[in-house]
Write a structure and sequence with these properties.
It is built from four helices and five strands; from the N terminus they run H-E-E-E-H-H-E-H-E. By secondary structure, the chain is α+β, with helices and mostly antiparallel strands. It is globular and about 35 Å long. Bound molecules: guanosine-5'-monophosphate.
């Protein structure tokens, strides 16, 4: 699938629509999900134009890949849910049709602030 420049997260990255920002650096932007499924529901997205995790893993630079993984940890620490200072969380990426992905820009959901429950329903 080619990257759709008009997807909602591309618009958030271009600051055409607002978000409730948690963290930003050269590689990632993190903000709260508009429709939270748990007490804490954050999203972490790479700044590059990648449709999903497979596109990212195949085409992103090593710097970008490290930046995203470290970004998730930075955000988890900021939210107080990382395993070193908090009680943990679930990081989840939906991938394409069978994965139930709705927004075609790679994003990790971070669910926490309470016991998250069963992995797959
Ligand atoms: P997906 O199903 O693609 O893994 O998840 C997309 C997520 O993006 C959903 O949890 C949805 O609530 C969230 N979302 C959709 N539109 C917006 C928006 O405009 N702002 C924010 N902050 N989240 C959004």
């Amino acid at each position: 699938m080619s990257y759709d420049n008009n997807n909602i997260f591309a618009k958030i990255l271009r600051e055409e629509i607002p978000c409730s920002k948690i963290y930003e650096d050269e590689f990632v932007l993190s903000f709260y999900d508009i429709n939270p499924q748990k007490k804490i529901h954050a999203l972490v997205i790479p700044k590059g134009k990648y449709t999903d995790l497979d596109d990212f893993s195949s085409n992103a630079s090593n710097e970008e890949i490290i930046g995203l993984i470290k970004g998730i940890n930075i955000v988890a620490k900021k939210l107080g849910i990382s395993s070193d200072i908090g009680s943990g969380y679930r990081a989840l990426a939906n991938i394409s049709d069978h994965g139930g992905q709705e927004v075609p820009h790679l994003h990790f959901h971070l669910f926490g602030g309470e016991i998250v429950g069963k992995m797959v329903s």
